Structures are given as C-alpha cells and as structure tokens.
Amino acid sequence: MQLQDRLDEVRNRMGKAAAGAGRKPEAVTLVAVSKTFDADAIRPAIAAGQRVFGENRVQEAQGKWPTLRDETAGIELHLIGPLQSNKAAEAVALFDVIETVDREKIARAIAAEMTRQARAVRLYVQVNTGLEPQKAGIAPDDTVAFVSFCRDELGLTVEGLMCIPPADENPGPHFALLGKLAARCNLDKLSMGMSGDYDVAVGLGATSVRVGSAIFGTR
After folding, report:
1. pLDDT for 1 beyond 90
2. Is residue 79 within 8 Å of 55, Cβ to Cβ?
3. Among the residues of the chain, which ranges form H helices?
4. Which residues have a Cβ under 8 Å from the Cβ of 24 and sit 6 or more positions away?
5. Interval 44-75: pLDDT, tens
6. How many CB atoms lie within 10 A of CB 19?
C-alpha cells in the first residue's frame, strides 16, 4: 500500500468515527507523526495534501523542517515529545504548537522565550493519565491548578490538553478523563489518539489525533 492510500484510509476512518459520534469530520485535525523519517520520506505526505506534522525531538526537526517549509507553504509543526528547558529557545523558534508542557520550569522557559522572540506558540498541557513513572505529563489531580498557573502567573494561553494512555490498557477511560479535565479547565481542545486507537479518541471528543505508523509505515 502506498503512502497516499494509507493516508486516505486514516482520513476515512477518522471521518467514520466522527460521524458515528455525531461530529463533523473537519472538527478533527490529523497530525502526521514524522519522527525518525527523513525529508524524502515526508515529501510524499506533503504532496498528498498533508500539512500538519508532529515531531518528538527538537534537534531532529531542525534538521529537516526548515528545508521542507521553504518548499511548501502552510506547514504546521507540533512538538509532541518531551521538551527540556535548555531547548525552549529552539522549540519556540521552530514549532507552531508545543503539546508537552508539563511542569513549571518548562512553562516558565517557554513564556520567557515567547516574550524574547515576540512569537506566539500554541500550547497544550500533557497529562499523565495513567500516572506512569517513566512517562512525562502532569498528574490528573494537579492539572487544573497547573493550567491556572500557566494562565494567571505566566500569562500563557493554553489551548488544550494532551495524553498518551498506557500501552497495555483500554485507552477509552483515559480519553474520557482527559475530556473531563479539559472541561474543568474551560478548554475545548483535546490531543489524544495514535495509530492504534485514534478512532476511539475521535469518538470521545479528540480535536486532533497523532498518527505515525499507520501513515508512514513501521520505522
């Protein structure tokens, strides 16, 4: 199956899941996760009309996206991997959306860089819904207070919440929890769902899904 076919299949499944939940397909954004793939592997997705992409690492993204952006207008780039504060300047300069804000130190670093660079980056707070010690993200019980800190103390505009459920658990309850937390924070954007469960996420209110292997194949 060619990339165009895989991309069409993902879009079709998203549309069916949205329709099944009484939602409009255009209410859900597909973030094509291009981490570990080089520019030549990404170009066919761009040629197929995909414009929103996700990367895990700042340094890797710096190596390919400036060139790809020079070639094609309208690219939107999301950072979906953990961010260290010493990479905040590069992240704010390169990415349009940072989905992994999860602690005060990184929130402060992003706020400072956005001021210094006079550049507004859209932000999501990552929630560790499964309380997994090896995984980034703020604890569910601390989410409302952390979003308030970002807004009130740092003047940041938080667009939504993001989560990565435990790999060995039913993702549905985690997606439902994220939705409840977002409602308590008066947020309506939910970044949740990956290649194995994005249709479930769409059915539970995802406004963006992060899909990699179902589009680009196995790495």
Report:
1. no
2. yes
3. 3-20, 39-47, 58-62, 65-71, 88-94, 104-117, 143-148, 171-184, 198-203, 213-216
4. 18
5. 999 999 999 999 999 999 999 999 999 999 99
6. 12
